Amino acid sequence: MTTPHSACLHGIGGGSPLNLTEDGYRDGPEFDHYLRTGELQPPFPDETIPTSETTFSPEDLDTELFHAVQHRLWMDRWQPTDEQQRRLERRAYDAESSPVTPERIADLNAQAADYYQQTYRGSWAQTYLTARLGIDLTGDPHIQPGYAPAGFTTLVAHLRRHGATDDELLAAGLAKTASTGTTIDTFRDRLILPIHHKGAVVGFVGRRHPDTDHLQPGTDAAAKAGPKYLNTGDTVLYAKGGQLYGVAEYADRLAGGATPVLVEGPIDVLAVSLASPDHVGVAPLGTSLTDTQADTLTPHLTSPRGVIVATDGDLAGQLAAERDYWMLTARGGDPKHVTFPTGQDPAGILTSQGPGALQALLAQPRSLAQALVDERLNHLPPAQALPAALAVVAAGDAQHWTRRTTDIASRLHLPADVALTGLISHITTWDHDRQRAATAQVATGHNTRTRLAAVTQLRPQERWAPFARQINQALVHGYSWTMLADTIDQAHRHGVDVHALLPTLANSLPLAPNHPADDLRYRLVTNTDMPIDSPTTTSPRPSAPLLPKPAPPQQPIQAPDVSP
Question: Are residue 265 and residue 357 in the same domain, yes or no?
Answer without folding.
Answer: yes
